[in-house]
Amino acid sequence: MQYDYSKNKDEHPEPIKADLKGLIPEWLQGTLIRNGPGLFSLGETRYNHWFDGMALLHSFTIKKGIYFIVIQAFMYAYHICRDAITLPTGDWFFYLDCILFAILCFALPPIDSNLSVLVYLKSLITCGSDGSPPLKSAEVVCTVPCRSLLTPSYYHSFGMTDNYFVFIEQPLKLDVLKMATAYLRGVSWASCMKFHPEDSTLIHLIDRKTKKEVGIKFYTGAMAVYHQVNAFEDDGHVVFDGICYDDNSLYEMFYLDKLKEQMGADTVYCKPKCKRFVLPLSDMGETGEDLVKLKYTTASAVKEKEGKVLCQGEVLCDGVELPRINYNFNGKKYRYSYMCCVDISPVATKIVKFDVETKQKIEWTGGDCFASEPVFIPRPDAVDEDDGVVLTCIINAKPVQGGFLLVLDGKSFKEVARACIDVDFHMDMHGYFIPGSS
Ligand SMILES: [Fe+2]
């Protein structure tokens, strides 16, 4: 199976009705917005790395009674994260910008039942479309000093419980001087990042009430983490799950020239592991003692000295990425995550429902196709955590066949419906579902 990563994709600003097979639940109404790189050259300018490609946004709208899908695409002449302040104006366009910015910047949308959405997203949306800086009303929740000002840690997502933030300072570092000159030198951001296997990974635990770090320094071995799955508190501990890599080879694989080579079983690939870490909220105990008292995990946190604890994660499963959960359980003890299977290569051909308690997996695969991050949408008034549907965008590897939006049952992980669209989808990264009838 091949996918041309470097091909510029077309816009389809007009709605396209989908050919629906199966039955979408009546309660499922809203818009799934998904985002990923879709433009890799503009005039003479070409990007070398897939992650540097300019954003292409597509949306799938599901309306009651009339099931149809809309694809809308907006391209940006600059990198969205870098230029958030100079976004185009106009209410609708601006709104989409905000959503896109949030999806891009916050892979794990930190939503809980009390906070509406992350403060940055709230601030972006509530600011005017009169050209005023969209980050003007952003609130600094807390500040965590980094180990080195010239080589700060790369950061992609964070964990959040009712009382704590979990912030990982990993030894995947940005070289600030290289980044400042990257544009002039015509190199990608990826080339300005370096993994330092000799360094440790610091795990910052921040008290949301005091807005300060707790008094214990937690650390573990070198790892690279892009996506955290969830975090929760349990009997004097903070538990967090994340997708962890032993190195930074993932980034290296996504140079466009490397992506032209077929990925397969012989691909040298550092497979990610879904790991659980446990942070004890007290370091009372003997030196050398494992302070983790939870029975259901093998994760450890050994007291090295007063205020310093060495953590070792438990591998829950491996070969998975782009995790999503029922966000009604974000920050709370949870059981299920929905992820892409990246067992052989970082490009997923399967998705999986994973039970973190039993370690059981249920997989979905469609044969010759690429699967995107599975987004779980709970059924209104659902009691069970997995009562809902999972939406994922599927690219058909056979060029004559278009892609489709796949709807799976959240419990059985069986196909409920698929909405086929005769369009050449681009491979996206993250999605966000906005409930509603519009
Ligand atoms: Fe991400």
TrEMBL record:
Cofactor binding summary note: Binds 1 Fe(2+) ion per subunit.
Signal peptide: none
Residues passing through the membrane, by range: 93-111
UniProt binding sites for Fe cation: H156, H227, H430
Cofactor(s) for this UniProt protein: Fe(2+)
Superkingdom of origin: Eukaryota
Molecular function terms, GO-annotated: beta-carotene 15,15'-dioxygenase activity; carotenoid dioxygenase activity; metal ion binding
Record keywords, A-Z: Iron, Membrane, Metal-binding, Transmembrane, Transmembrane helix
Pfam families linked: RPE65
BP terms from Gene Ontology: carotene catabolic process; retinal metabolic process
InterPro entries per record: Carotenoid_Oase (IPR004294)
Family: Belongs to the carotenoid oxygenase family.
The protein's name in its UniProt record: Beta,beta-carotene 15,15'-dioxygenase-like
Gene name per UniProt: LOC107562788
